[in-house]
Each structure stands twice: as C-alpha cells, then as structure tokens.
Design brief:
This protein has about 120 residues and is an alpha+beta fold. It has one domain: Beta Barrel (OB fold (Dihydrolipoamide Acetyltransferase, E2P)). The chain is about 30% helix and about 40% strand. The strands form 3 sheets. The protein has a 5-stranded antiparallel sheet with strand order 5-4-3-7-6, with helices on one face. A hairpin with a 4-residue loop joins strand 4 and strand 5. It starts with a helix and ends with a helix.
Amino acid sequence: MNRVVKRLEERSAQTIVVQRGAACQVIALSEIVYCEVMGRKLYLHKSDGAVVEYCDRLERLERRVDQRFFKCHRSYLVNLDHVRGCRAGQVFLPRGEAIPVSRLRERELVQALLRHMKERDV
C-alpha cells in the first residue's frame, strides 16, 4: 500500500516549466488535459479550462512529459488520465471536447489506453 501511495505522490508532483518571454510558469502534468500545436504555438489546455500559450515544438514537449501522454495526431498530445472514450477517429475529454485521432494511431491509442488503465489500478 505504501508503494502505491508513494507512486501516486511522485506522479502528481511532476511538472514542466513553460517559458514565455522573460516570464515562466510551472504547470503540473496532471493539470494538462491535452496539448495542441497551431503554427509555431503550443496550447496547453488545462483541467480548469485555462489555456497556456507559448512558442515551442510538439516534439520537444513530447520528450518532456511522461508516459501518460499519447500523440494521437500530428497536432495533438492527449493526457490519458483525462480520456473519457474514443470512437470514430476521435478522443472524448471531460469538458465535451473531441480531438482527432489519426487513422494510423487509432489501434495504438486503444492499446495505450488499456495499458494505462491497467497501470493505474496497480
């Protein structure tokens, strides 16, 4: 039981630092529902509805986050903790958002979701 509690505490303590100009902001990975890229800007959509915008590449962000994030489309990275379902090339999120899943990644997404659910029930 102690091992499970310790693992949950470590997981919730993980953060990333987002730099915008001279300012920087610390964001817990657990708060990020999904990330999307448009042009040269990344948009981090948080569970409280806020959106953090900054300049970076999705590939760099992908290297900074942990295994709970899955790249479901060339422009989207989704936090599997927040996924409520998937169907017909879309992932459904808590606030009713539906983000696209590329045809090539649909099967991989389902496998990642099942693996993630299994890990969470440790």
